[in-house]
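Q: Make up one entry.
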Amino acid sequence: MTGTESVLGTALRLAVAGVPVLPLRAGKGPFGNCRSCADSACGGRPTMKTPGPCVCPLPCHGWAAATTDTAVVSSGPWAAAWSRAETVAYHPGGAGVTVVDLDDADAIAWARESLPPTRTVATTRGEHWIYRGTMPSANGVRLGVDIKSSMSYARWLGPGTGTMGPLPAVVHALIVRSVAPVRPVRCAVSVPALAGGGACPHRSPVFLERGIAIGEQRISGASSAIHTTVYRTFLAVLSAHGRCGCLTEAHISRLFTAAQAKGESSRHCADAWSNARTTLGL
C-alpha cells in the first residue's frame, strides 16, 4: 500500500496488473471458511491447501481464493472482507513469480552469498527475494528460509527494489533437498548395478559430465512416455552417482531443466527425483 491508499484500493490496483489478490485478517492470516464451507460442506478441505469444487463467492479458501477479477474483488462479499482486512496478500504462483522468504539477518546473509541478485522487498523481520518463474512452495527449506510460489500466499509489501531475475537452479535445489520421501512409482525399470559395490565409478569429471549429458539427451529426445523417461533417467543417474556425493546442484538443475523443457512441472521433477532416491534406498 502507498500513502493513504486503502487496502481495497491496493487490491484493485494489483488485480488490474494481473496479480491475484486476497485479503488477510488481523494476524495476517486468510479469512476462515464461511458457514457454507465449514467442515468441508462445500467439497473443499478445511486446511485450505487443496480446495474442492467450491463456488462460494467469499474469499475463504486462502491462496485458492486469490483472483484478478476486479468485479469479484470489489463485490459485496469481498468488499465486506476488505473492510475488515489488515493487509493484502497475493498468490505468487498465480502471478508467475517465486518468493524466497528470508526471516532474519542470518537468512539474508546466506542469500547474499548463495543467490543471484533480484528484486527485494523489506519485511518486518527480513526480506522477500522475488524471482521470475514458479515452483512448488515449501517451508523451512533451510533455517529461516521459506519458498512461496504455487499453492501459497505472500503479503504484499510494495514493489520492492532491483531488477527481477529468473528463478535460479539453487532455489529449485532447496525443494529437492527438503521434499519428503514419497511412495515410489511402480513401473518396470532395470536398475544398473553399482560399480565397486556402490563406489562412484568416475575418477575424473569427464565421466560424470558424460553421464549428465546422456541424461539430458535421453530426456530431450523422448517423443512419448515423458514421465517414465524422466524417472528412468533420474534413476540411472542416481544409481551411478547418488551415493558418492559427486552430484551438485548444477547437475540436478540440468536434468530438471531438460525435463521441464519437455513439459514436466517442477513438482513432477521433484517427485520423480524423490521416487528414484527412495527406490535406491538413498
The mean pLDDT is 80. The radius of gyration is 22 Å.
